[in-house]
Design a protein that fits this description.
This is Ankyrin repeat-containing BDA1-like. Residues 1-78 form the PGG domain. Keywords: ANK repeat, Membrane, Repeat, Transmembrane, Transmembrane helix. It is found in: Membrane. It holds the Pfam family PGG. The structure is a single chain. By secondary structure, the protein is mainly α. The protein has one domain. It has helices at residues 2-16, 48-52, 54-80. Helix 1 (2-16) runs antiparallel to helix 3.
């Protein structure tokens, strides 16, 4: 039960604050004030890891979601007994 609670807590926290952090502000202009290309635009709150490594972030999301659902299921199963 304790291990399941710990895994659920870690999985939730990593989902809220992903590795690499999140963009803190919107960037539409470069340092000289010129517009950047459409591909360099990011928005505040988006994951930096997802922008830099989309495939790895997808694998991370699957693993994190699986850990969270599995640990919550185990907690509910133990509590029902």
């Amino acid at each position: 039960m304790v291990v399941s609670c710990l895994i659920a807590t870690m999985a939730f926290q990593v989902g809220v604050n992903p590795p690499g952090g999140v963009w803190q502000d919107d960037y539409l202009l470069d340092s000289q004030g010129d517009p950047v290309s459409q591909f360099d635009i990011h928005k505040a709150g988006e994951s930096i890891f997802a922008d830099n490594h989309p495939l790895g972030y997808g694998h991370f999301l699957v693993a994190n979601t699986t850990a969270l659902i599995t640990s919550l299921s185990i907690i509910l199963l133990i509590k029902s007994v």
